[in-house]
Amino acid sequence: MVCDNTIAKPICSVCYEDLNPIIEDLQSISICGHVFHELCLQQRIEYCSNAKKKRCPVCKQAFSEANVSRLYFQSVGNLYQKSINCEDNPGELRREIETLEGEVLGLRSAIERYQKDVEELSKELCFSKEQARKEATLKNEALRQNASIQQLFHLKSEAYSSFQIELDRSTLECVRLQERNMALAKELAALKLSSDLNLEEEEVMKLASLASFHRSCKELTAKCNVLGRGEARALRKLGKAKEKIKKLKARIQELKTAVEVKDNEVLRALKASKKTILEGDILNDVDWNSNSSSISEDLAVEKNCFSRSEAASDTRSEVHRPCNKDGVSGSRSVSKGDTIHTSCAAMDEDTLLFLDDIKQVQSFINVEKESPCSFPISQPGIWTPWIVNLVLLDNL
């Protein structure tokens, strides 16, 4: 008979094994309705990480753990009852055989893979054991070397301690010998001193002169050192003095330049004032036509006075003397003669004050003998005549 049960068995889409709802626990995804083994679905859920969404293995529908529910089935009769005459169906048996052969092949491939893994692990284990044996050998060798080094260090330490003890003993012996040597040296010096008492007087004088010579040499050496230090100080002072002299020379040159500039300014001012006075005299000549002869006589008198004051001293009496000898003032009126004498006196005072200032400047400039003044300042014959004329014209 042919088997009447031609419906295919349901399988799990994860493990591809038959679903037996009577003896196995099944779970279903409520969103899509697909059914799986409970263990397969839980492993699938655990495989998915938290960041990755959980999807159905069949339709790839996203779901959550709340959408998973367990299925419960009820059955009637024998659970292991088979269909009638199912064994007589060769197609079904062939499919079962093919399925079993596929499973056997899968198991064989898995066994071979596991055997390869076991062989690799065995090789790794052997290699690790070999490495461990080598490391143990190296460790034992290092321990033996460390023990030998410790023993050698202990021997060296003992040798060093014995050498230190011997060195201390030798040091003490050396100190004792040095003390004995000093004592023998003192005894020898005492013997030499006692033997030197028998020397002759000439040798004693030679020794005394030698001692005095050594003393004088020491004193001379000390004096030479003192003189050397004094010479060094003097050289330093000389250098400072030279620098100071250079600075003073520069300052004197600046003062000379300033004096020349000041003299030039004074000359320019006096020339300007002279021009102004001459212009005023020209204007006054128009009003003083009647007194022109007396003014010319006054000018002649003034020139004569200045020529005589140039040959005589700078005092006021010598300046007034030629004015009194000529007797020219009688040709004027009393008021005009008084004016001339007053102007001469004022002129003399101004001239003397100006000459004193020039002499003070020249004495300050000629402090340094190496740089003499390039032009004479205190010559009254050069400066006084035109200065006196200007002062006289101003007073008139």
What does this protein look like?
The protein is mainly α. The chain folds into three domains: 1-76, Herpes Virus-1, CATH 3.30.40.10; 89-191; 258-395, no CATH class. It has helices spanning 38-47, 90-196, 201-287, 292-311, 316-326, 334-365, 380-395; strands spanning 26-29, 35-37, 54-55, 62-63, 68-71. A three-stranded antiparallel β-sheet has the order 2-1-5. A two-stranded antiparallel ribbon has the order 3-4. It starts with 25 loop residues before the first strand and ends with a helix.
Q: Which short descriptors sum up this protein?
A:
396 residues, mainly alpha, Herpes Virus-1, two-stranded antiparallel sheet, 7 helices, flat, Znf_RING, zinc, Znf_RING/FYVE/PHD, RING-type domain-containing protein, coiled coil
Outline = flat
Mean of the pLDDT scores?
72
Q: So how many helices?
A: 7
Structural class: mainly alpha
Rg on CA atoms, Å: 72 Å
Helix-strand string: EEHEEEHHHHHH
The domain count comes to 3
The share of residues in helices is over 70%
For the sheet with most strands, the description reads: 3 strands, antiparallel
